[in-house]
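Bug #77: duplicate submission created two jobs. Keeping one. Sequence:
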Amino acid sequence: MFQGDYIHNIDAKNRLFIPAKFREELGDSFVVCPSPDGCLFVYTEEHWQQIAEQIAQKSSSRIDRIRQRNALFGVTTVSPDKQGRITLTPRLIEKAHLQKEVMIFGMTNRIEIWDMERWNRMMDELPQSEDGMDSEDLYPEINY
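Kept job's structure:
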C-alpha cells in the first residue's frame, strides 16, 4: 500500500527521484500515465495490466476507440536508475503541467505526482473546519 508524501524536484534532464519506500513496492519497472485529474498516476505493472485490460474490453465503437486512445496516450513504463530517479517524457510533464517542484503522494493503490503549485491550490480548496482539515467533513460515512 502506498502512503506518505514527499517533495522533490525535476532536474534539467527531466529526472525525478522516487522515494525508496515507493520503489520497493513498485518493483524494478512500473507505469506512469497522465491522469484525468491533471497529475500523473504511477502504478505497479501488475495493477496497470488490470486497468489496461478493462480499457481493452470496452466495445469497439468509434467513441470507445477514441476513449481508449485518450486513456492510453502517453502511458510509459519506466525503470529507476541507480540513484532512484526516473526520466519523465516531455508529454507526461506537459500533461501534468509539472514545473520543477513536485509532490509525490501515496494513494493506497497508486502514487500521484503533482506540480507543487497545483497541489497547494487543490489542497486550499478542500473543506476546512475551524481548526484545520476535518476528515469527517470529507467522508462522513467513514468511522475514524
